[in-house]
Amino acid sequence: MITKIPYESLGHVQTSWLDARHHFSFGYYNNPERVHFGALRVVNDDTVAPKAGFDDHPHQNMEIITFIREGVLTHKDSLGHKGTIKAGDVQVMSAGAGIVHAELNDGDDPVRLYQIWIMPKEKNTQPKYAQRSFRGDTVKNGMTLLASGMADDKESDALYIHQNAAVWSGQLDVGTEVEQKLRQSAYVLASHGTVTVNGVELKKGDAAEVTGQTSISITANDNAEVLVLEIPEKLNS
C-alpha cells in the first residue's frame, strides 16, 4: 500500500528566519493524525535564513539525522564537536541520555535541509555524534546507503543509528528507473524534481508512506533527488 503525503498538506511554520514544513506534529504544529510513522517521529523540511539558526537546545533518546540539501550549516554540541555540514553531508546525532547542540547558518545564503528523527530501540545510551560527506561517493543513478542500524548493513560505510532502520538517497537523471528492495515499511521523500513510485507521482516536497511491499520502483520524471527511509512499524523493533 502506498499513501501519498502532498507537500501542501504538511504543517507550515514560518518565522523571520525559518520556513519549516513538518511531516508530523512538531512544535506549534499539532495534528493528532500525523504523530509518527512507526519509529519515524519527525521529518522537517527546513529552510534557514542567513545569519540565523537554532540556538542551544537539548535532545534525549532520539536518533537525529540531518541531510543538507543546499548551503552550509554550523554545528556545535555539548560533547565538544564543532564544525560545518555542507550540501551532500549527513550528520547523525544519537541523543541517548542527553545532548545539547546548536545549528546555525553563518553564511550569506539560505540552507535547505531535512531533519529526521527516529525513535531508538534502546533508551539512555551514551550520546554520540558522527558526520560524513557523501559527495563523490554516491551511486550514479542508483541508491546510496547513508545511515543504518540494520544487521544486514553492519559491514557498510553507512553512519550507525540505534534502530533497525535505514536511510537511502538517490540522485537520478531524468528517465532513470531503479528498484529499491525494502526490509521494512518505508517513507519516501521527493527532495528535488518529480518521481513516480509504484505508479504514484511525487512532486518536489511530497512524500509517501509505503507498507506491505518488499520493493518499490522509482522512476525519475525530471533530474531528481529522492530519499527512502526504511522504518520499523513497531516502536521497539
Task: Write a brief structural summary.
The chain is mainly beta. 0% of the residues lie in helices and 54% in strands.
Task: Provide an overview of this structure.
With 237 residues, the protein is an all-beta fold. It has one domain (2-231): Jelly Rolls (Sandwich). Helices cover 0% and strands 54% of the residues. The chain is built from no helices and 22 strands. The chain has strands at 2-5, 11-14, 18-22, 40-48, 52-59, 63-70, 72-77, 82-86, 89-94, 99-105, 111-118, 128-133, 143-148, 159-160, 166-172, 177-181, 185-192, 195-197, 200-202, 207-210, 215-220, 224-231. The strands form 4 sheets. A 7-stranded mixed β-sheet has the order 1-20-17-22-15-13-14, with no helix packed on it. Strands 2-3-4-11-6-9-12 form a 7-stranded antiparallel β-sheet, with no helix packed on it. The relative contact order is 0.19. The mean pLDDT is 95.
